Amino acid sequence: MRINTYIDHTILKPTTLISDIEKLCSEAKQYQFAAVCVPPPFIKKAKELLQGSAVKTATVIGFPFGYSAVEAKLAEVLLALVDGADELDIVVNLIALKNNDWEYLANEINYLIPIIKEKNKVVKIIIESGILTDDEIVKCCLLYGVAGIDYLKTSTGYAERGASVQAVKLFRENLPPHVQIKASGGIRDYAFAKELIDAGATRLGCSGSVAIVSGENANSEY
């Protein structure tokens, strides 16, 4: 398994420095990760640093709590597209979700998806599975599975629980085959990363990506 090809090498802390982005992009090129995931103000810098490589530039929208107004998320989406983002990881409105307002969530995604797809960019929807019930997760799979998204993503990394094998399996059981799964939050070693991939994840959001790849190399029997 070439686990590097599954990884979005990620830094999203609010104190991120330009030097952090430079290091992230350098490592992403060295290890040939799928993408880097950076805060919106660093999209242009990341694109510049990754020029000439196959590594994509991802960013986040409505991060990390998801309760921004749809109009605010739209503004973030438009700016990210102008700045050159290849992939957009959008946090759903978790307040609407926990209050069972599925109409709001449907309107939100239907408002944002066409603009992103018009530019042929990748859409990942973050639902924060660690704080949801199984029933809420299944409802999300049913709603977003037909909305035109590319990935359903487990977590922001900011909730008390991140990715879990159980959640990834539940995603896979309830999503259409064409919708892929991104697991993120708390993935710190190769063994757990492999478990998530075996459960159905096709992308991993990680800040400790180099350690994970090193773990694979140390376990070459896989």
UniProtKB/TrEMBL annotation:
Subcellular location: Cytoplasm
Broad EC category: lyase
Alphabetical keyword list: Cytoplasm, Lyase, Schiff base
Taxonomy, superkingdom: Bacteria
GO CC annotation: cytoplasm
Pfam (any one): DeoC
E.C. code: 4.1.2.4
Pathway: Carbohydrate degradation; 2-deoxy-D-ribose 1-phosphate degradation; D-glyceraldehyde 3-phosphate and acetaldehyde from 2-deoxy-alpha-D-ribose 1-phosphate: step 2/2
Annotated function: Catalyzes a reversible aldol reaction between acetaldehyde and D-glyceraldehyde 3-phosphate to generate 2-deoxy-D-ribose 5-phosphate.
Gene Ontology molecular-function annotations: deoxyribose-phosphate aldolase activity
Keyword Cytoplasm applies: yes
Catalytic activity: 2-deoxy-D-ribose 5-phosphate = D-glyceraldehyde 3-phosphate + acetaldehyde
Gene3D superfamilies to which the protein is assigned, alphabetical: Aldolase class I
Chief location of this protein within or outside the cell: cytoplasm
BP terms from Gene Ontology: 2-deoxyribose 1-phosphate catabolic process; carbohydrate catabolic process; deoxyribonucleotide catabolic process
SMART domains the UniProt entry points to: DeoC (SM01133)
Active site: 89, 153, 182
Similarity comment: Belongs to the DeoC/FbaB aldolase family. DeoC type 1 subfamily.
Name listed for the protein in its UniProt record: Deoxyribose-phosphate aldolase
InterPro entries cross-referenced by the UniProt entry: Aldolase_TIM (IPR013785), DeoC (IPR011343), DeoC/FbaB/LacD_aldolase (IPR002915), DeoC_typeI (IPR028581)
